[in-house]
Amino acid sequence: GPAQASKDRCRVAKGGTALKRTSTVLVAQNGDRVSACLRPNGRRWYLADDNGLYNTVTIDAVGRSTVTWTESYVPECKADCPPGVNGSTTQHTIDLRTGTVTDA
Asked: Kindly report the CA angle at 38 between 34 and 41, in degrees rounded to 5?
Protein backbone atom coordinates (compact mmCIF):
# COMPACT_ATOMS: atom_id res chain seq x y z
CA GLY A 1 0.00 0.00 0.00
CA PRO A 2 0.94 3.68 0.06
CA ALA A 3 2.54 3.37 3.51
CA GLN A 4 4.92 0.71 2.19
CA ALA A 5 5.95 2.90 -0.76
CA SER A 6 7.30 5.60 1.52
CA LYS A 7 9.04 3.25 3.99
CA ASP A 8 12.79 3.84 4.03
CA ARG A 9 14.52 0.64 2.94
CA CYS A 10 18.07 2.02 3.29
CA ARG A 11 19.60 0.69 6.46
CA VAL A 12 23.08 0.28 7.91
CA ALA A 13 23.79 -3.45 8.09
CA LYS A 14 24.41 -4.95 11.52
CA GLY A 15 28.01 -4.21 12.45
CA GLY A 16 28.24 -1.52 9.75
CA THR A 17 28.84 2.21 9.94
CA ALA A 18 27.07 5.13 8.24
CA LEU A 19 29.72 7.23 6.46
CA LYS A 20 27.33 9.88 5.05
CA ARG A 21 23.58 10.25 5.43
CA THR A 22 21.23 12.72 3.72
CA SER A 23 17.47 12.74 3.25
CA THR A 24 17.88 10.83 -0.05
CA VAL A 25 21.18 8.91 0.19
CA LEU A 26 22.89 6.62 2.70
CA VAL A 27 26.56 5.69 2.28
CA ALA A 28 27.64 2.91 4.63
CA GLN A 29 30.53 0.56 5.25
CA ASN A 30 30.18 -3.02 6.45
CA GLY A 31 33.52 -4.76 6.85
CA ASP A 32 35.64 -3.59 3.91
CA ARG A 33 32.62 -3.06 1.63
CA VAL A 34 31.42 0.52 0.99
CA SER A 35 28.00 0.90 -0.60
CA ALA A 36 25.45 3.62 -1.30
CA CYS A 37 21.67 3.39 -1.11
CA LEU A 38 19.03 5.64 -2.67
CA ARG A 39 16.11 6.38 -0.36
CA PRO A 40 13.38 5.36 0.05
CA ASN A 41 13.45 2.46 -2.46
CA GLY A 42 16.52 0.82 -0.94
CA ARG A 43 18.40 0.22 -4.18
CA ARG A 44 21.95 -0.48 -3.00
CA TRP A 45 25.09 -0.04 -5.11
CA TYR A 46 28.59 -1.32 -4.33
CA LEU A 47 31.18 1.48 -4.49
CA ALA A 48 34.52 -0.01 -3.44
CA ASP A 49 36.47 -1.87 -0.76
CA ASP A 50 38.22 0.02 2.04
CA ASN A 51 40.52 -2.14 4.14
CA GLY A 52 42.06 0.92 5.82
CA LEU A 53 45.57 -0.15 4.82
CA TYR A 54 46.15 -0.61 1.09
CA ASN A 55 42.74 0.41 -0.28
CA THR A 56 40.95 3.45 1.11
CA VAL A 57 37.73 5.20 0.16
CA THR A 58 36.92 8.85 0.84
CA ILE A 59 33.37 10.10 0.29
CA ASP A 60 33.81 13.51 -1.37
CA ALA A 61 30.23 14.64 -2.05
CA VAL A 62 26.66 13.40 -1.77
CA GLY A 63 23.95 14.91 -3.98
CA ARG A 64 20.22 14.17 -4.23
CA SER A 65 20.91 10.97 -6.19
CA THR A 66 24.68 10.91 -6.68
CA VAL A 67 27.77 10.02 -4.66
CA THR A 68 31.31 11.12 -5.54
CA TRP A 69 34.14 9.20 -3.92
CA THR A 70 37.90 8.82 -4.21
CA GLU A 71 39.58 5.41 -4.14
CA SER A 72 43.26 5.29 -3.20
CA TYR A 73 45.46 2.23 -3.61
CA VAL A 74 48.92 1.75 -2.09
CA PRO A 75 50.85 -1.35 -3.25
CA GLU A 76 51.77 -3.79 -0.51
CA CYS A 77 55.49 -3.14 -1.10
CA LYS A 78 54.95 0.56 -0.15
CA ALA A 79 58.37 2.32 -0.04
CA ASP A 80 60.24 -0.84 -1.14
CA CYS A 81 58.47 -1.12 -4.51
CA PRO A 82 60.52 -1.57 -7.66
CA PRO A 83 60.57 1.33 -10.13
CA GLY A 84 57.26 1.77 -11.92
CA VAL A 85 55.15 0.15 -9.18
CA ASN A 86 53.05 2.98 -7.82
CA GLY A 87 49.80 3.51 -6.04
CA SER A 88 46.81 5.19 -7.62
CA THR A 89 44.04 7.61 -6.78
CA THR A 90 40.82 7.71 -8.80
CA GLN A 91 37.68 9.76 -8.31
CA HIS A 92 34.29 8.32 -9.34
CA THR A 93 30.69 9.54 -9.36
CA ILE A 94 27.68 7.20 -9.38
CA ASP A 95 24.11 8.05 -10.33
CA LEU A 96 22.14 6.01 -7.82
CA ARG A 97 19.03 6.04 -10.03
CA THR A 98 20.78 4.15 -12.85
CA GLY A 99 24.00 2.76 -11.38
CA THR A 100 26.06 4.59 -14.01
CA VAL A 101 29.57 5.36 -12.80
CA THR A 102 31.75 8.07 -14.35
CA ASP A 103 35.42 8.64 -13.60
CA ALA A 104 36.83 12.12 -13.07
From this structure: 125
Question: What is the mean pLDDT for each group of 10 consecutive residues in the chain (104 residues)?
Answer: 61 94 96 95 94 95 97 89 91 97 92
Dihedral Cα 1, 26, 97, 39, nearest 10 deg = 20
d(CA 34, CA 18): 10
Q: Which whole-number Å values give the CA distances from 40 to 14, 71, 98, 104, in the listed order?
A: 19, 27, 15, 28
Its pTM stands at 0.85
Asked whether 50 and 56 are in contact (CB, 8 A), the reply is: yes
Cβ atoms of 37 and 24 within 8 Å: the answer is no
